Amino acid sequence: MKKKVLVGMSGGVDSSVAACLLLEQGYDVAGVTLHLYNNEDAGLSKARTCCSLADVEDARSVARHLGIEHYVFNFGPEFRRDVICRFADGYSKGETPNPCIDCNRYIKFGKMLERARLLGFDSIATGHYARSEFDPTTGRWLLKKAADLTKDQTYVLYPLTQDTLAHTVFPLGGLTKSEVRKIAEEQGFVNASKPDSEDICFVPDGNYAGFLENVMGLKQEPGSFVDESGNVLGQHKGLIHYTIGQRKGLGLSFEAPKYVLRKDTASNTVVLGDSSKLFSSGFLAENVNLIFAENLTEPTECEVKIRYSQSEAPATLFPLPDGGAEVRFREPQRAVTPGQSAVFYRGDTVLGGGTIRTAKS
Question: CA–CA separation, 291 vs 325, rounded Å?
């Protein structure tokens, strides 16, 4: 009997090609598009294609072209609770969260796999650029970087559990983006030349503060910019308007550049200082998910990535009694930001990851 796989089809080229490849490999394939929110509810124009009817139609067109069933699951309430509200809550605490990681954790792999099982599917698949494999030595599933390192998406996949990895297929893990585009063109897919989505889906203009204030009602009180000694340097518009390492957009003028070093929610202040003060020797991580092992039992050498666009830095992981981890860099790293995710690698293998709680000087 063919293995039944439900492919998450966003309407984009990657997930469309993923479905095509699985069919060619002999799987019994169906597609599903996740409806996560209405554009009007997120303060967006109805004409935008983000999570819109146009995306659903593109996915349905490809499914029809491939001769497979196509479903639409409405996870709007779950997406608002587990992604958008967590995003707003993080900012309200002075953090800089990554909602794409929560979306993968709770929705794209959590709820979708749950629904797929109810419908009798053996596995799910997505168009993410990543690879997974079973390690018979440890008896664990591993998450590995994609062959195309310029498109690798393992940073946003570190929360995947052993159960999820055992029931997920990544058909694009060994391909480059250009190869994927070529397959789509050869197949005549309607979305073969559709551009990639680069921004957070519910904040496509990048104006996080505007979204938090106007849509989520997260009102901010003005406060003081201060130096490290507490001297007032000027007034800020509200903590959500600033992030660690920011220099532009402060509305102040100094003889030498000043950067946001940290945000203090208790005093509603933004601390400014020289670039040299942005470097940290390490940090404490919470909500740690390990993939390579059940628990962290001893100091572990690895490479750590503290934001999606940054290369990994050599470091050592130390287990903490609460299940978290302390990360100590071999060389200090710039702008370690609470709320962001840190992902631990060893070569092309993802050891796990967690949320940055506190940077250490």
Answer: 14
135-179 pLDDT tens trace: 999 999 999 999 999 999 999 999 999 999 999 999 999 999 999
Task: Classify 220-273 by CATH class.
Answer: mainly beta
Residues 6+ apart with CB under 8 A from 330: 313, 314, 315, 316
Superfamily of domain 4-187: HUPs (3.40.50.620)
Tokens for 56, please give them.
């659903």
279-360: which CATH architecture?
A: Beta Barrel (2.40)
Helix (H) or strand (E) holding 24: helix 13-24
pTM score, whole prediction: 0.93
pLDDT tens string 233-246: 999 999 999 999 99
Please pick, among 20, 50, 51, 201, the residue that the annotation labels catalytic.
201
Is residue 201 flagged as an active site residue? yes
> How far apart (Å, rounded) are the C-alpha atoms in residues 157 and 283?
21
Residues 131/156/311/17 CA torsion (nearest 10 deg): 50
Catalytically annotated residue among 50, 100, 103, 302: 103
Please, what is the end-to-end C-alpha distance for the chain in angstroms?
Answer: 58
Known catalytic residue: 103? yes
Tokens for 361, please give them.
Answer: 């000087």
Q: How many CB atoms lie within 10 A of CB 275?
A: 15
